[in-house]
Design brief:
The complex is a heterodimer of chains A (273) and B (292). Chain A is mostly helical and 273 residues long. Chain A folds into two domains: 1-52, no CATH class; 53-272, MetI-like fold (Orthogonal Bundle). Chain A has helices at 3-33, 37-41, 54-60, 63-95, 102-114, 117-131, 137-161, 165-173, 178-189, 191-206, 210-215, 223-228, 238-258, 260-272. The two termini of chain A are 39 Å apart. Chain B has a single domain, classed as Orthogonal Bundle (MetI-like fold). In chain B, β1 (40-41) and β2 form a beta hairpin. Chain B starts with 12 loop residues before the first helix and ends in a 5-residue tail after the last helix. Chain B has 292 residues and is mostly helical. Chain B has a two-stranded antiparallel ribbon with strand order 1-2. The chains are: A mainly alpha (273), B mainly alpha (292). At the A-B interface, α1, α4, α5, α6 and α7 of A face α1, α3, α4, α5 and α6 of B.
Chain lengths: 273, 292
């Protein structure tokens, strides 16, 4: 056997092992979410069992969980909407290099993305209490702009940069204004970019915990907080805990399978380009 | 790559104005407020008395902040190192294979899709010392069964392991994309000269990937320094503060003990640290001619 062939076989072995390790925890918990209490605690673990749906019925009968789920859907919609309405014109202008203090704005965006959550949570806690934004999905979506807005601008700027400059010049010659060029030339061409960005924003918002923990109390609680409430079941009711975890992650796992290309492309865009 | 424009075209500052306003409200206001709070004995709505550096001195004297900072740095550096090595091995392996690469990519991004709190619940069940499948497997082959999250000697390592399961996919995706974008010619030339696989990795792949590696390390480092969800979900900072992190301590100080002045002082120090890493990265990036 040649060296190259051995290396290829080793590569396959590594990838199969890594793929298995990646998938196994999720599959295992999915199994527990479908097992009876006795089966879940059985030693050695039962690989073959009759699935039951009781735990899912329990989680979906939990009003707090349902509320959290739909609050997160709303937060993702609002957060994306704000980020695109505010960020697309900014991305266009920053890409065109027609903005004063361009470098400073770009650095500020990066910093906003990087700073710790509690830097935003602690002051906003007071401000939101005073203004009525505390425990509201709108307030949450606003603070989420500290990461969705920079990320959206970054991504859209990269997609706008791929639009041929000749198209811009042609539109200019026909007398189009900047906003018309943005809407009619740049946006349609960057449509796949908008999809990729929206997916990544949604994943990030869906999974956010620290800010939601600090700035909501009851009516605006998100899905991550609803899942966190099941931590207390860790030693007693594994079925309900697993069903809650699986329900919360399922929408994003489906995203991963359906939009694999956009997610992979989006994640690598910033670092490689 | 951005485009240059003719000087006759109008300045587009109104296009960035909403961004500047929102960023101002969401970052400048908090920065100013936190600085102010850290210098006061703060109570919401009540009188806040100027107290100079008292909050910072208390942090130092109480010691819990120093412990949390050390834990956090240990966690971040270990996790990033493991993720970088594993991500690199996987990217190199994926670069060699032709069939099944797409399926493998999906498998590797699955953990990235899961929230930190759901990851915590999943691993709490897997690592359960009495009923968990991992200890059952270890017992099956006659190995010792550690009390993963419950013992001071293994809790931190367990956190790093869970974090690695969660985020190695990110490092892999980026390194794999970067590997694909490398030019073929230098590798062919080296092969003709008789270079072996390790030499090509050491003297060609690694230097060419350096800007990407630096970017990935900075992103992962900052993200792991900010660790909150996993600690909150898996250990709550215990046992005996063995896994207390800066952000969980901030949360406790502010929302459990209502000590906002001291929490603000932690945030000030921690944000300065993050800022310093960003600034160093910016300077480095400009020098090496990476993306702006």
């Amino acid at each position: 056997m040649t060296r190259a062939r051995r290396a290829t076989i080793l590569s396959y072995a590594i990838l199969i092992l890594a793929g298995f390790l990646s998938l196994f925890p999720i599959l295992w918990i999915m199994g527990i979410s479908l097992k009876t209490q006795a089966d879940a605690f059985a030693m050695p673990p039962k690989l073959i069992f009759v699935p039951i749906w009781d735990h899912y019925a329990k989680v979906w009968g939990d009003a707090a969980f349902i509320k959290g789920f739909f609050n997160s859907v709303l937060a993702a919609l609002l957060g994306n909407l704000m980020a695109f309405v505010i960020g697309i014109p900014a991305a266009f202008a920053l890409n065109q290099r027609r903005v004063p203090a361009r470098g400073a704005i770009l650095a500020w965006l990066l910093l906003s993305y990087m700073l710790p959550e509690f830097l935003f949570v602690i002051p906003m806690y007071g401000l939101f209490q005073a203004t009525g934004l505390y425990d509201s999905v709108f307030g949450l979506a606003l603070v989420y702009q500290t990461f969705t807005l920079p990320f959206t601008i970054w991504m859209m700027r990269a997609f706008f940069a791929d639009v041929p400059f000749a198209l811009y010049e042609a539109a200019r010659l026909e007398g189009a204004k900047s906003w018309q060029i943005l809407l009619r030339v740049y946006l349609p061409m960057a449509a796949p970019g908008i999809a990729a960005t929206a997916i990544l924003n949604t994943i990030r918002i869906w999974n956010e915990l620290a800010i939601a923990l600090g700035l909501t109390f009851d009516k605006a609680q998100t899905v991550t907080l609803a899942v966190a409430a099941y931590r207390g079941y860790a030693s007693i009711d594994w079925g309900a805990l697993s069903a809650a975890a699986i329900t919360s992650m399922l929408p994003m796992l489906i995203f991963a399978v359906l939009a694999q290309r956009q997610i992979v492309g989006g994640l690598s865009l910033g670092a490689v380009k | 790559m951005a485009q240059d424009s003719a000087p006759s075209q109008p300045n587009l500052w109104p296009y960035v104005l909403p961004t500047v306003l929102v960023l101002g409200a969401c970052t400048l206001y908090p920065i100013a407020t936190v600085l102010w709070m850290s210098l006061h004995d703060w109570t919401w709505g009540g009188d806040s008395v100027f107290s100079g550096l008292k909050n910072f001195k208390l942090l130092w004297l109480k010691g819990s902040f120093v412990i949390a900072l050390m834990n956090t740095v240990t966690f971040a550096i270990s996790a990033v190192l493991v993720e970088l090595v594993l991500g690199m091995i996987l990217a190199l392996a994926a670069n060699r294979v032709t069939r099944g690469a797409g399926v493998f990519r999906v498998l590797m991004i699955l953990p990235l899709m899961v929230s930190g709190i759901a990851v915590s619940l999943v691993w709490k069940v897997l690592l359960d010392p009495t009923f968990g499948v991992i200890n059952a497997a270890l017992a099956g082959v006659g190995l010792p069964e550690p009390n993963w999250l419950g013992s001071t000697s293994t809790a931190m390592a367990s956190l790093v392991m869970v974090e690695t399961w969660w985020q190695t996919g990110f490092v892999f995706i980026i390194l794999a994309a970067a590997l694909k974008s490398l030019p073929e010619e230098p590798f062919e030339a080296a092969r003709l000269e008789g270079a072996n696989g390790w030499q090509m990795f050491r003297y060609l792949t690694l230097p060419m990937l350096r800007p990407v590696i630096v970017t990935v390390v900075v992103f992962r480092l900052i993200d792991t320094l900010k660790v909150f969800d996993l600690v909150f979900g898996l250990t709550g900072g215990g046992p005996l503060r063995a896994t207390e992190a800066v952000q969980t301590l901030t949360y406790q100080t502010a929302f459990k003990f209502s000590n906002f002045g001291e929490a603000a002082a932690i945030v000030v120090i921690f944000s300065a640290l993050i800022f310093a890493i960003c600034a160093a990265y910016g300077a480095l990036d400009r020098r090496t001619g990476g993306a702006e």
